[in-house]
Predict the structure of Glucose-1-phosphate adenylyltransferase.
Amino acid sequence: MKRNVISIVLGGGRGTRLFPLTYSRSKPAVPIAGKYRLVDIPISNCLNSGLNKILVLTQFNSASLNSHIKNSYHFDIFSKGFVDILAAEQNVENESWYQGTADAVRQSMKHLEKYDYDYILILSGDQLYQMDFKEMLDFHIENGGDVTIATIPVVAKDATGFGILKSDDDGNITSFYEKPDYDILESLKSEVSEENKHKGKEYLASMGIYIFTRTILKKMFEDGAGDDFGKDIIPNSIGKYKTLSYQYEGYWTDIGTIESFYEANLDLCQDLPQFNLFSSSPIYTRARMLPPSKINGSYVSKAVFGDGCIIMADKIENSVIGNRTRIDKGSTIVNSYVMGADFYQNTTEIVINDRSGRPNMGIGKYCYIEKAILDKNCYIGDNVKIIGGKHLPDGDYGTHSVQDGIVVVKKGAILPSGTHIG
């Protein structure tokens, strides 16, 4: 079958629910799993599916995302593949920024005219999953779809947070409700596998992954179908175009909040994590050419380490440790994500800091850190205690914030020796 596809990864909005991780970066640029960025997930899924024409649409805090894309994805001169950035722009025809997910694609359509494609794959830049898009595309083509939505079965308590749809026995979507009220859920059950039905997963949630036939999407935009895929385009397509549900049975999570981000990272430390980093489908990212991590005298259990770390901690348990992390002797890290650093301090600077009592980059001596996220380039002094939990009120506290009991130390923050949080 002919598969001329162009993939568009949406760079996301302001990402307020992931603050402070999104204070100086867009959601897709947030580091995940110790060595990747969130945007690496949809791009890798595309490349592993044989789709190598990829555009990333950006608007807010896009500098770090642009840098990551530029430094990570290079194709040889004989390949037609690319991963390019399309930044939001004002021009004589349109002076406004993107007004929604669909508007972002609509404003970018003029840039797609130079490419040969029949189908557009729309992806979110802030989700964690592994999916073969070829199978979804085959389903779309074989069933004569105009629009195909990737869906995943969810339980009732999760259904109110998603766009929920109903489909008939042939996979045609008959209705769509954006974040429906709990009292109407009973009427929104769909046909799912016996295993999912047994688990109570009888509601089909949109994953925010769409395939459009090129001519159909162009016509929708010409007809003024709306600015957002979930709120406008998808509901308006039902009954007017052949709109299909493609059920996905694997692991998928939306990284929309600090809590979901924290849980997704710590799940990687389990014996059999839901997201398999060790599969035959690699996650691609920037090749940093860092040395291997060095661990000396530490008790380590259920931990994931990035590259180039220098670890002398007493104990690291159920934690993700990112690239270039330095943890000094006597320290304990439990149920936490330490993102690491963008660079190494030189030895002269370290000696000067030690003499003056200033913290060095990384985590100092005899610290205790539990239920926390430490953003990049943090300076944590000696004898610092950070203990997250539901006893802490949500809020922003200068060097750190608290959400759902999780302490998030901000990028580049300095916590002097003896600091106690929690």
User: Anything to note?
Assistant: The domain at 5-268 is CATH 3.90.550.10 (Spore Coat Polysaccharide Biosynthesis Protein SpsA; Chain A). The chain has two domains: 5-268, 294-415.
